[in-house]
Specification:
The protein is of the alpha+beta class. Helix content is 40%, strand content 21%. The protein folds into two domains: 5-28 and 169-262, Alpha-Beta Plaits (2-Layer Sandwich), CATH 3.30.70; 34-166, Alpha-Beta Plaits. Helix 10 (209-215) packs across helix 11 (225-232). Mean pLDDT is 78; it is low at 236-263.
Length: 263
């Protein structure tokens, strides 16, 4: 029986196979305002109102593409907040950020950076309470902590750097073959999502014998090669585009391809 799923064991092979199905994958998309930004829920707020703030984030139209709960070391906190090292509040900030778990979130939506900053309001609690009492920093202030409890990236470039600080990004591609998809489609999709993947693209195309042979060139000469090529060239693929910059899944009535995993 043919294997039901192909998985790459090297980044080079994953890149080659991604380029085969998605030649424009590495190109920067234009004409779209969908962005990612980093949000941090600091220890005191995370402990007291975790579920409330996460629901508020979703209600405001953000998709949580990635999340990671982490207790920062002092060195990590110093590195992340290096721009504030000469501020009077820096020692208090270090102490607080190493006191317990912080929740790092990658938030996705149109104009995510500015929208999140607008929702947060002024940086200092005093100004937030006085000038923007409906802002998140004012609403979610913790009485026992003088620091605001929510962080947002200041620009798209900063967001990229800050996201890389907390989340390592890899691209991979897997092909689920016809039999598995027909019999276990819903279960496969659910397990993919539960494993930390996000579906962002699907692709419809006809895979002829020449294309199948090219895709599986690494197996040429092996006993199963002709059978595999024949099997994979009998079906049509389905294409769908979702959120850019998020992990991708390509699916077909026959072949399901997913690409980009956040770990």
């Amino acid at each position: 029986m043919l294997n039901l799923c192909d998985i790459q064991d090297s980044t080079e092979e994953a890149s080659r196979q991604l380029a085969f199905f998605f030649p424009d994958f590495s190109k920067k998309r234009t004409g779209q305002n969908v962005e990612k930004t980093l949000a941090l829920i600091r220890p005191s707020l995370l402990k007291e109102r975790r579920n409330s703030i996460l629901q508020r984030i979703k209600d405001d139209g953000f998709t949580i593409a990635m999340q990671k709960e982490i207790v920062l070391t002092e060195d990590e906190a110093r590195q992340f907040y290096k721009e504030h090292e000469n501020e009077d509040f820096f020692p208090t900030l270090l102490q607080h950020m190493t006191s317990g778990p912080t929740l790092a979130l990658a938030l996705v939506r149109e104009n995510a950076v500015q929208h999140w900053r607008d929702l947060l309001g002024p940086k200092t609690l005093e100004e937030a309470k006085e000038k923007s009492p409906a802002s998140l920093r004012a609403e979610y202030a913790v009485d026992t902590m003088p620091l605001n409890q929510l962080h947002g990236s200041s620009s798209a470039d900063t967001a990229q750097k800050e996201l890389e600080f907390f989340f390592h990004v890899e691209h991979t591609l897997a092909v689920i073959k016809p039999t598995a998809l027909k019999e276990h489609k819903d279960d496969i999709l659910e397990r993919v999502k539960n494993a930390g993947f996000i579906i962002s693209q699907m692709k419809e195309t006809n895979l002829n014998r020449e294309m199948a042979a090219k895709f599986y060139k690494a197996h040429e000469g092996k006993p199963f090669f002709d059978q595999l090529v024949d099997y994979m060239s009998d079906f049509q693929l389905l294409h769908y585009k979702g959120l850019p910059g998020a992990p991708l899944i390509t699916h077909d009535e026959n072949i399901l391809i997913w690409q980009q995993r956040w770990t």
